[in-house]
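User: My instructor asked us to take a sequence, write out its structure as tokens, and then describe one feature of it. I'm not sure where to start. Here is the sequence I was given:
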Amino acid sequence: MLEASPLDDGWNLRHEGTSLPAGVPGCVHTDLLAAGVIPDPFLGRAENEVTWVGRREWTYERELPAVPSGHEQTDLVFDGLDTVAEITLAGQLLGRVRNMHRSYRFDVTGLEGPLSVRFVSAYAEAEAVRGRVGERPAAYTEPYQYLRKMACSFGWDWGPTLVTAGIWRPVRVERWSTARLARVRPLVTVERGTGVVELRVDVERTRVEAGLTLQARVGGRTVRGEVTGTGGAVRVEVPDAELWWPRGYGEQRLYEVELTLLHGSSPLDVWRRRVGFRSVGLDTSADAHGSGFTLVVNGERLFARGVNWIPDDVFLSRVTRERYRRRLRQAADAGVDLVRVWGGGVYESEDFYDACDELGLLVWQDFPFACAAYPEEQPLRGEVEAEARENVVRLMPHPSLVLWNGNNENLWGFRDWGWEERLGGDSWGEGYYLGVLPRVVGELDPTRPYTAGSPWSGSWRHHPNDPAHGTHHSWEVWNRRDYAEYRSEVPRFVAEFGWQAPPAHATLRRALPGEELSADSPGMLHHQKAQDGNGKLARGLARHFAVPDGDFDRWHYLTQVNQARAVATGIEHWRSRWPVCAGTIVWQLNDCWPVTSWAAIDGDGREKPLYHELRRLYADRLLTLQPRGEGLVLAAVNQSGQPWSGTLSLRRVSVEGEVIGAASVELAVGARLVGEVRVPPELEPAGAKEFLVADASGAAGPAGGGGGLRAVYCPVPDREIPYPQPRFEVAVAPGSVTVTARTLVRDLLLQADRLDPGARADRGLVTLLPGERVTIGVEGWETPDAAAARAALYCQEPAR
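Assistant: Let's start with the prediction itself. The structure tokens for your sequence are:
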């Protein structure tokens, strides 16, 4: 039977003639940080002090002892090496590697002694490849497109430039005889209610003549198959299989699969995974609105409630199984049902996809290409196909994985960012996205759809980012326009859009110790990586709010409110346009360090107001007031599996709290549908002193002040509204803060991290009418105090 022994301990890192203890999995930066050689690059501007690390060569060393085992072959297996390295054992070269996204296996039978992994600088390798294949354009100046490494190591508009090297995934020694399972490719389908697992197997042998068989167990059924030469297959059928569903549509039933390779009756190797039976498709057919982009799971057409995922830490080995689960649990709790793994990162670890399988989170997986023209010459072309083949097969068992995507923004970049002219006919990646990758997916994983890129209109007959065809990235709004303009289009699927805001106050205090905070203080500017990011924040804020002069706390609150408002404007409009629009994927769920960014959860894991707003926006049922044509429409979005009926109340209210007009409307919306009611003209608010409130009492979901769902519509920007001086009462109890409004209280927010850095509130922005009350749950606050709670409460105030 194959024996595997971890080889993660006992490593050292050579640094300036000395050896430092090395953590494996890990990277040079985490080792130097642990040894006190470098400062924490996440704090202040220390990132600038460690740029030298990415320019050096580094060597990891340890002894590989001889371990008599009685097996015929011994393999040294690296699950991940970052990135360009030479591996030697006892002075003998085992191999050279150049791809972070692949694993490597070396035959070390009979060898022992010093084991060395020498990494060359990623910069040196990238610059050498650039010299061979020629210059290629990119969105950033760093040379990330010339090697197969996590692109955002080189910095991004939300990330630091920390170019890593190291043994970033586990290492082990495997000892085996006769044969082993080299590759197992599970094709999981549903045929007329029967779950089918077809296991296609490649084996590696030490003895060609040995007779081998396969034995597969799934769902209480056992089937055997033969191995011929180096391949074999076995098919298991599970009658009346329970389906795996995305969250909100059904249960996440998972089945254990055990495949054993046998020589006679002796087991040689075992492969175990969990699978889920479900069908998945992508409807891109043409219709009266253009051509769609609708995910279909088990025959159910979905509006995807998505978030974009970036690596959760610059230093990937620090993202543990528990951290993956915590972050993805946060996503699920916010109503998210799809997570897009963005193309500037990595194929994530099994822990990520396991959590998505269990939580019912659909995964859209980008191949790692982002925002650059990628050369198609060697040595890159062979590496791209090898990594694609390995990772497609590695991730195939996961039912959560529903879509392969060729790249992020490169087809768009070729057409719109001046690349076509600059390239002058040179290769730029099209051969990957329209050739290599669809061929690999079609050959190895025909159970899942593939799309060439995001955005992509489906063919060159349309502009790559045409909102009427396929996927669309909406960035003109953040970059140049008011977010009210989200309502000007109904894209078929919005795969990226978003708005920036700073992280939580406690996160800033930790990341910028001793700094007097202001929007443009040195540390704040360093932790703002977007081009003209603060300028865009300022212009976006000024369109809607009276910008506070020199009051950082007020600026911090209003920019976070504005982020939530911007994203809400888009999602409410697009969800109300289902089924023409079939999904939104917010940029972005998470951060990789403390930074002002588009994230809903900041780099310390704290939830911004946007996170809590997503809980409302992505709930199964959503009320929204939408300006349409000459009037207002009340849209009731029902993504639940049950009809939604009841009475809606509409109130035209003054800022002083007077009800100017009211009406009740009967609601009846079928499952997975959107219902619309035209607001009576006499209830439409006029001018700056009035607004409209719609309530659906008793409906499940996040509420306004009490139970039920609420929508608020103001006809003018907040900066024009003469808000009254807010008056409210505060009462505290263990685990809660209760606020009772005596006036209109708009956008009430408890910043729990101001009570205690470890505290968390269970809700975000709330609008209360006079006499209404809200109770906010608070975790991690051990000494409740009403004065402290009042100081941590923010809301809209009269313009100063």
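For the description part of your assignment, you could build on this observation: Confidence is low (pLDDT under 50) at residues 699-703. Try explaining in your own words what that tells you about the chain.
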